Amino acid sequence: MSRRILVIGAGFAGMWSALSAARLIDQHGRNDIEVALIAPEPHLHMRPRLYEENAAGMKAPLTDIFASTGVRFVQGTVDRIHVERNEVDMTDAHGAPSTLNYDKLVLATGSRLFRPQIPGLAQHAFSVDQVDEAAALEAHIGGLAANPDSIARNTVVIAGGGFTGIETAAEIPARLRAALGANADVRVIIVERDKEVGPDLGAGPRPVIVEALKSLGVQWRLGAAVTSVDANGLTTSDGERIDASTVIWTAGVRASALTAQIPAERDALGRLHVDRNLRVRGVDTVYATGDVAYAATDDEGNHALMSCQHAMNLGRSAGHNVAADLLGEPPIPYSQPKYVTCLDLGPWGAVYTEGWEREVKMSGAQAKALKTRINTEWIYPPGTGRAEAFAAADPLRVVVA
Predict the structure, then answer these.
(1) Are 131 and 240 part of one and the same domain?
(2) pLDDT digit string (tens) for 329-377?
(3) 327 lies in which domain range?
């Protein structure tokens, strides 16, 4: 009887999980283990690039690579995971319900932007979290010129001064001027509740970030949180009113809600605790990877971040190990001790750091060239040829970008 590895999610971790599992099964010449992947559509959304222009086109097709590697794509959305009977309830692309069984499950459903219950936030704030949301923001900015000239029309507020907020803020001045005219008096303001911009990035790259944002004309309000949003702007916790026709929310993400259906320990972000092989602790049939996994990267106490950099290698490891589990082969423990960051700073350039202390190694145009390679080459799927795809899915191939 054929057995099935079921991967939920076609993001970076899900795609690489499926390819890595198929690779090991192929190496053993087995045709009695199916790798199936469920996702709403057969595309990899290039989420790390959604702060850029042309967001609607930030998708990479996966149909051909799945076909060449023998991964069965199932179009639909998982509604319920039944761990006790190794089944999932799903709704297919036509809205019809069905049930799919599995022998081993890989949960790779990623994360979503966290939107707290702030008055007006859901109705009036934009985001760059998903392709459709980033495309809606782009269309909104493109249409601003049709509105009367005003301070609010010419102002964009980015709520959240973390990685995504900084990358978005650095892009916006040029995009606003492209929409409103080169001589438009535009304002771009970051609102960050911490006392420093880029609080999670640490002190290492901060001087570079500050220099770049200042040169681009970006302002910031620190030590204040957003307390309400409306169609004409927002109010902060220290009572400041900022008039703005455009508010972009970037403040934090949470793991997929499907993690709550796995009877296991989760961290404050909703990520499932996994062992070094990425099996969910206490649930032998389920592996978690990417943004839904609270996974140690090394023996020094560091854990994977919700980032493309970690998701790609987490996916390769989870896919290999879930297949090894069914094949009776020894696993390859997940390990990713090298950590880097490359933060896009718009027309100014970028900043590249190494290590968890984020020591700056490169900045300006040189770092921008590296960031461009990362965003346009390294994070994309491999070619659709079977041999090329399997070579790229090797869990011992460490990707640090």
Answers:
(1) yes
(2) 999 999 999 999 999 999 999 999 999 999 999 999 999 999 999 999 9
(3) 3-113+253-338
Q: What pLDDT does 1 receive?
A: 59
- Block residue for tokens 């994360």: 111
Q: What is the CATH number of the domain that holds 245?
A: 3.50.50.60
Cα–Cα distance measured from residue 333 to residue 115, given in angstroms and rounded to the nearest whole number: 34
Whether residues 140 and 75 share a domain: the answer is: no
Do residues 236 and 297 share a domain? no
Which pTM was predicted? 0.95
Residue in the structure block whose two tokens are 């005003």: 150
Residue 335 identity (one-letter amino acid) = S
DSSP 378: I
R_g of the chain computed on alpha carbons: 22
User: HSE of 378 in the Cβ direction (CA atoms, 13 Å)?
Assistant: 18
**DSSP code for 269:** T
For 100: left if phi > 0, alpha if psi spans -120 to 50, otherwise beta; the answer is beta
Residues 22, 398, 296, 46: is their CA dihedral positive or negative?
negative
Phi and psi at 203, nearest 5°, equal -75, -25
Record the tokens describing residue 363, joined without a space: 């900045």
- Boundary (domain end) residue, out of 322, 338, 354: 338
Considering its fold, how many domains does the chain have in total? Answer: 2
The model's pLDDT over 244-287, given as tens digits with 9 standing for 90+, comes to 999 999 998 999 999 999 999 999 999 999 999 999 999 999 99
